[in-house]
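If you are new to this repository, start here. Below is one unmodified record pulled from the training split, so you can see the exact layout before writing a loader.
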Amino acid sequence: MKRIIPSLTIFVLFLIVFLYLVPLQDIVSALRKIEPSDLLLGFLAYTLSQILRALRWKLLLKNLSLKDTFLINSANILLNNVLPARTGELSWFYYARRLGVDLKSSLWSFFLGRLYDLLALLSLLFLAYSLLRDLLLPALLLLFLLSLTPPYLRELLPPLGKLSEIKDFLRKELTPSLSLKLSLLSTLSFFFKVLGVYIVVRELVGANLFTFAFAFTGGELTTILPVHGFMGYGTYEAGFSIPLKVAGLSLSQALKVGFLAHSFLLLSSALWGSLAILLLHTPSRKSP
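And here is the target side for that same chain:
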């Protein structure tokens, strides 16, 4: 109960502020402007982003099929959205164990994947800025070199206790080639996720894709907070709206775009996540 109260408090406060600044009829009007074809295209782009993300997990969990990693990833995203205080993350280890992955392998793979998620978000932000400044080629070269460096960062870890285990795991599993693939897949996954959201709300934004990517990155970075509003409402909109406000949108317009973008992502994750949970709980999906 103590974990739920902060989330519900943030959610209720957000609703009060949001409905004060954004009249309900404006939201209805904005929804009517979204074409069904744009919703479909946006959802397809979102789906592609999750397939790329599942392929990234497949590189880390070699004993699982792409279908398995897609199901685990989809279930994890949905449960992380609806459960408070990041407790949804536990679903990753639960479902990985059901499919025969030992806890140690799923733990190291999970944290390594989250590291590349963060690097991908920062890379996307850097690329968007570089495109706006006509510095794409130098940016790509720099990101290529940086994507090769994580395997060598293990040398900074002292050989003490669990740190020595992490160091050994990285030495055996994380090669420069694998690091490059993880970086590329993670960045492409986030790009198609941005593209999917942008397709849906572009008529309301009045900004190009690269400017929109700044707002998207701000919203996504809030998902790593230990506490956020119910289903992320409130914290996500705050992170999403600030860059749009800086880009010239009014606060009410920025909040409206952030709310619709967030709702589209939640709906998309719910569609795939619900199906994934259903399939993962069928008897044939249990480990021997």
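Two things worth knowing about this chain: The radius of gyration is 20 Å. The mean pLDDT is 85.
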